[in-house]
Write a structure and sequence with these properties.
The chain is an alpha/beta fold. It has 2 domains: 137 residues, Spore Coat Polysaccharide Biosynthesis Protein SpsA, Chain A, CATH 3.90.550.10; 232 residues, Spore Coat Polysaccharide Biosynthesis Protein SpsA, Chain A, CATH 3.90.550. It contains 13 helices and 15 strands. The strands form 4 sheets. It has an 8-stranded mixed β-sheet. A 3-stranded antiparallel β-sheet has the order 6-14-15. The longest helix is centred in the middle third of the chain and has 15 residues. The protein is globular. The C terminus is likely disordered. The structure holds guanosine-5'-diphosphate and manganese (II) ion (MN). Guanosine-5'-diphosphate binds next to β2 and α4.
Length: 375
Amino acid sequence: FGRPDSPYFSYTVYKPPFVENRNNTIAKSCILMLVRNIELEGALQTIRRLEDRFNKDHKYDWVFLNDEPFTLEFITATSAMCSSSKIKYGMIPRELWSVVPDHIDMEEANRRMESMEAQGVLYGGSLSYRHMCRFQSMSFYKHPAVLEYRYYMRTEPDVDYFCDFNEYDPFKLMELKRKKYGFVISMYEYEDTIPTLWESVEEFIEETALKEGTDEFAVGDGFQFLTDDQLIDRGNANNMRSAQKVVDTLNGDYNLCHFWSNFEVGDMDGFYRTSRYNSLMDYLNLEKPGFYYERWGDAPVHTIAAMLFLNKTEIIHFDTLGYFHAPFGTCPLSENTRLQQKCLCDPQNEYNIDIEPHSCLMKWWKNGDGKRFLV
Ligand code: GDP
Ligand code: MN
């Protein structure tokens, strides 16, 4: 750790005056970007926007991760653009990125990638995209550079934040309200990328319950969000339910709703680092081939896990934060909000997914308080 040829090479830039950011939240929080050196320009654009709209008032640490060593050019330019005193650059070891489990037959994976590419599936033929999605699903929170933080905000190159956050600090809010997952955009996933994800989760539930020698399985109260079929189980949300009952409940088809993960805020200790989350990830990675034979995205993986392991009251929709990641965005509907937060967006614009049929937001709000479907 610390040497450029070490798999855990990590480099930290400290800018004076060094003030460790502890005044906003009790727990430590960071802004995290997985990025390639060639994306420098887009990374700078994102940093500039997020600093102007939010972080210049808070100075949360930035963490950049890459599967290759960052260039000096990248480190110099990005660290200059960040307002925080501490900016970390972590290299992702191969074990967390490109080492695939033994049960994956790479020839088979290649055949499937070729055929998905031929069918026109987005990133259907890309192996690196699959490594990325798997890393964002089950590894980012394990990286040594990220371990010191409890909360994280994910960002990406070339995204935009339409509005000032003002006093709205997602980290602080999540800590105060004990939220574990926050999102801004929700929509339907491409079915071709996850044909067997849902059934794999069902099998996990059945098998976990069996392995633990109990037929009981704790489940969050949000499952109605994930299926358009009427759920049968109306049990108390906080109760343990029998695994069979959960699976019967799930037997509705997955409606493909997911939270867009390119902007998300998470309580890593309270969600990603829990043994339940990681046992699901181990199952999906070690027992099922879908990260490579299909093209499971981290967004549906995060979402299904959140609905499985969290209660709906632990999930928050940030409805006043304007955001854009091509080709979709979200813009606060309230004119008052837009004026007060100096938004540069128009909710009538076609990029505003919230008012489009392929948004899942209405479905989220319909079942929003987690009580309404417990008739
Ligand atoms: P999309 O948003 O699904 O279209 O995918 P992106 O190309 O934006 O990738 C998602 C995130 O992962 C972005 O932050 C990218 O910079 C990052 N990313 C994707 N592929 C790689 C890769 O091979 N190496 C690294 N270091 N980052 C990657
Ligand atoms: Mn992206």
